[in-house]
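Hi D.,

Good news: the full-assembly prediction came through. Inputs first.
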Amino acid sequence: MILRPSDVEEAVSLLGEGARARAGNTGAASALAAGADVVDLTGVAGLRGVRPGPEGSVQVGAATTVAELAQAPGLARSHPALVRTAAALATPEVRESATVGGNLLQRNRCAYLRDPAFSCLQDGGRGCPARSGDHPRGVVVDSGGCVEPHPSSLAVALLAQEATVEVASPGGRRSVDAGELYASGEGAGDHVLGPDEVVVSVHLPGPAAGERVGHLRAAARSRAEWPLVEAVVRLGVSGGVVGHARVAVGAVARVPLRLPQVEQALVGARPGQALDERAERALEGVRSWCAPLPQTGYKVALLGATVRGALEEALADPGR
Ligand SMILES: Cc1cc2nc3c(=O)[nH]c(=O)nc-3n(C[C@H](O)[C@H](O)[C@H](O)COP(=O)(O)OP(=O)(O)OC[C@H]3O[C@@H](n4cnc5c(N)ncnc54)[C@H](O)[C@@H]3O)c2cc1C
Ligand code: SF4
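Then the structure:
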């Protein structure tokens, strides 16, 4: 049965009784096939829309579609890194239905997880058949356990945007940093939320002074595909010098990652110029920090090249 709660608290209570959440339904969630009641979040009051807040901040409801996010008036000017990431993911058709909350909490893409002949750490079993089997899209920064990267592109952009996520639980609401939605290591699932928790909204602080951005995704094909590596860069430039830098990457580890060593090396750089020696050394550091699996060695060079490309794009960005 499909249940249509009118507010977030009702949705949380229905999930607590064993129903499963659904938003745009573009993921592979098969709650109906599994016989569970489905809580449709798309009609829940207050869960949809992009609302401006104080000091340039913005709140995005979790049931806002990716297409609405990519086209929200003014957002391309205030939060271009997020808009560019949203506009580049999946296909126009998927973006019309896919929601922000569903994107953040989508399941990983591992073929073993979708094959009923296998059981693994992600479905209550033991071990990871991909680790000793096929893992060509797997992590290049191995933290143990599951080796499939988290597939959310928006999570990478939200990390770079220093966003927080509002979560509703049976005990009330709380705010977590975007990166804290995910965990890595032996027992970690695709995200840390419980089955009776709902992502309510995402809060984006205002832009950095003199914000410039770069976004690059390396993919096996240009459309309808998750990236092999994705990089989002935000620079705040005042007086012709980078004073603030945020660099986030996806599809390289179980969780989206910030690259603080690259961020630190960028502070003091002059946009319009090529990467300086310090930034080049930091990129080299990123490459040597990788610990690839047998089939992901190619991602070491790809990670370096993708981050480099996004940095160059940000340094060349004239700003808005
Ligand atoms: C061809 C193709 C290419 C794609 N490429 C990309 C890509 O490059 N990058 C990328 O990031 N994604 C990509 N996707 C995935 C797509 O973006 C996701 O399927 C989509 O964002 C999921 O959103 P949804 O609203 O449809 O979620 P649903 O499928 O409805 O739900 C997904 C999961 O999230 C849970 N959920 C949904 N909303 C909430 C909420 N508010 N609170 C709590 N739980 C919730 C559901 O219970 C379910 O477990 C691609 C998909 C396709 C088909
Ligand atoms: S990579 Fe993750 S999802 Fe795939 S088999 Fe291993 S534990 Fe399961």
